[in-house]
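Please go through the protein record below and see whether the fold suits the sequence. Record follows.
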Amino acid sequence: MLLIQKISLSDFLNYKEEYVNCLISNSNNDYITEIFVFMDGVNPDLPKSNKIKYFVRKSHNDNELIEYSKE
């Protein structure tokens, strides 16, 4: 199963412990094979796992199209 989550950087900073615990718990779940996380920015406190793929907002234009890039 694929899990996709979008997190704003401000929400992550306000609820860091909850997000980290959730990502760690989900990455330890054998039923979930990959986790895609879309964020507005990066933070060193994000958990590392082979299952978790982070995509960071690269640009945002007037047509509400948001480009993400894997770092």
Remarks:
- The longest helix spans residues 16-27.
